[in-house]
Amino acid sequence: MSSPVRTIRPETSVGEAHRILLRYGHSGLSVVDADDRLAGIISRRDIDIALHHGFSHAPVKGYMTWQLKTIAPDTLLPEIESLMVTYDIGRLPVLENGQLVGIVTRTDVLRELHQQKTREKNGGSESENSREFAFCPLPEAVERLLRTRLTPELWQLLTDAANIARDRGGQLYIVGGAVRDFLLAPHDKLALTDIDLVVDGDCRSGDCAAVDVARALQKLYPAARLDVHGQFQTAALLWHKDSAFGALWVDIATARTEFYPYPAANPEVEASSIRQDLYRRDFTINALAVRLGVPRSGELLDFFGGLADLKLKQIRVLHANSFIEDPTRIYRAVRFAVRLGFAIEPQTEGYICHALSSGIYYRIQGENGRAPALETRLKSELKYILQAPYWQAALQMLGDLRALRCIHPTLELDRELWRQLRLLDRVVNRRKKEEGRGKKEEGRNERQETITNAQRPIPNSQSPIPNPQFPIPNSQFPIINIPEWQMRLEVLIAYLAPEYRGKVAANLQLPTDSIQWLQDLESVKNQILEGLPKCEFPSQLVMLLRNCELPLLIAIALQSPRKIRHQIWEYLTLWANVTPPLNGNDLKDLGYKPGPKFKQMLDDLLAAKLDGKLGDRSDAISFLAQHYPQD
Fold it and tell me: Do 20 and 82 share a domain, yes or no?
């Protein structure tokens, strides 16, 4: 049976009952009286007919079926089957002590009959030589394979959680990605760092079933940190560098359903059944669950054909409006397809194209000014994709689907944008190589004999200056402290028209300095494009570019002609880290009084050094004596 059962009162209007059916996707509703005793059932067809005749305001008690066939929790399957066939009944309420505790539908019966047939066909157990697990989803086979693939400590943790849920009248399931990955490679070791568990049970005494289970489990495992999110009926147990679990995150949620009040909103969630919980997920391959603990430990729940889609290696969405309700599922579809080597099922691709062409996201933005719930999820998906090793293939697929329009309706992955992203990748890879060489150098230096102070080289201020016409030996690209995914995202945003960049960056919650330089990009780029051709000496190059932040310079270089790009690269790799041969303390030691003039003096010294006019410290002192004589 499915439990809990969604119910309404006899006085509920037909219009309200219709809204509830729409919200939860049911084909009928149970009607209970003030004492929560079953009074009748009303089907979707009954409601549709009443609406057709204009009775949306009328109470459902005038349209419900009140002469009912019911069953008990211990009613056997043959009797259930007989009642449904004899009386053409699609659903049978389950009563215990006069109270409605569950409901059995035709689908439940068909699924159970199918599982019985599968057991008989396989002789009640999995073949010893079977390597195609998708053909044999028997509970005992699933449990045995799952147990062998997990560490003994993790299996014991799941067993303890299942026992705690059972003692509280619930049933525990492992759901989502862990089940998917297990079914894809059932005979390989399963290394889990993130596990999603669902408790199919009621919320009691103001505490949700999942929270109750998590608190009890934490008492058995006090080394875990407990985080509770009551609003979403979830809790999490976290281990960090644990001797048994390493780094492990276990999410525990109460089975729930969700409803999007409008497209791109945060969904409204409430407690429901495991079937509804799986239905709210994104794709069939992620809507799989395995029952943990008695009875029927290891039972695989596959309500939507996820097992078949794993075999077909395809990404299929659960319902047609999924991408309308949450456009970021488009990005998840691409991410899973590329990561797993799957194809997006043709009808699902059609739903994606329809959602993008509908313009629903932009209408929401127009009505509300922005869609913060969607933008938060979108940034998260972009981060997942742009930091992954397969980011190029995923971005190419998003471009082919024209899905970058979720970032902004004008954004397309054309040849020029792709060229800029590849150039950025060269910059990032160059920096990684230099970091690798630097670490090797550090290792060699540590192994060398320590040099005495007398043998140490004189600091930069006394070092000879190379001829500026030739590259400086051991040139180094400046340190990049920005995550790679963010740099790629900023290149995408920088490709937009100037008037859109700042707003899109703000909507995607980029750091304040990123928003600022994206807003300033166009004006600074124009100044640099005008000034760089006039630079004849390195000092002129440095003075023009030194006040620009590194991300801004990289963005300008990516968008500029080759000659300009070469000059910016020369600045970054050759001249950006050059310092004046003297500093402020040196000036004071030479008798100069501190003041605003120090900055000009140091700038002049730097320019002379960059242009090859100074050799050593004595040259710098002579330069000052000539240009800044003391009284």
Answer: yes
Q: Quickly list DSSP for 463-483.
A: SPPPPTTSPPTT--PPP--S-
Indicate whether 355 and 279 sit together in one domain.
no
Residue with tokens 């471009």: 399
Please name the residue that has the structure tokens 């790629």.
488
Residues 335, 408, single domain; the answer is yes
Indicate if 193 and 307 belong to the same structural domain. Answer: yes
Domain count, the chain: 5
pTM for the structure as a whole: 0.78
Say if residue 408 is in the same domain as residue 472.
no
Classify strands 246-254 and 234-242 as parallel, antiparallel or unpaired. Answer: antiparallel
CB pairs under 8 A, 24+ apart, for 515-518? 517/549, 517/551, 517/552, 517/555, 518/490, 518/493, 518/494, 518/555
C-alpha to C-alpha distance for 555 and 576, rounded to whole angstroms: 17
Of 484, 544, 494, the residue nearest 514 (C-alpha): 494
Cα(272)–Cα(19) distance, integer angstroms: 17
pLDDT digits (tens, 9 = 90+) for 478-505: 677 889 999 999 999 999 999 999 999 9
432-483 pLDDT, tens digit each: 776 666 555 555 554 454 333 334 333 333 333 333 333 333 456 667 788 9
Give the separation between CA 453 and CA 460, rounded to whole angstroms.
16
End residue of a domain, out of 263, 296, 311: 311
- Domain assignment of residue 246, given as a range: 133-311
Cβ atoms of residues 535 and 570 within 8 Å: no
- H-type alpha helices, 402-463: 415-447
500 and 520, same domain (yes or no): yes
Say if residue 14 is in the same domain as residue 65: yes
Asked whether residue 106 falls in the same domain as residue 156, the answer is no
- The set of residues, in sequence order, having a beta carbon less than 8 Å from that of 130 and lying 6+ positions away, is 136
Q: What are phi and psi of 472, to 5 degrees?
A: -75, 130
Choose the final residue of a domain: 295, 311, 327.
Answer: 311
What is the rounded CA–CA span in Å between residue 452 and residue 392?
50
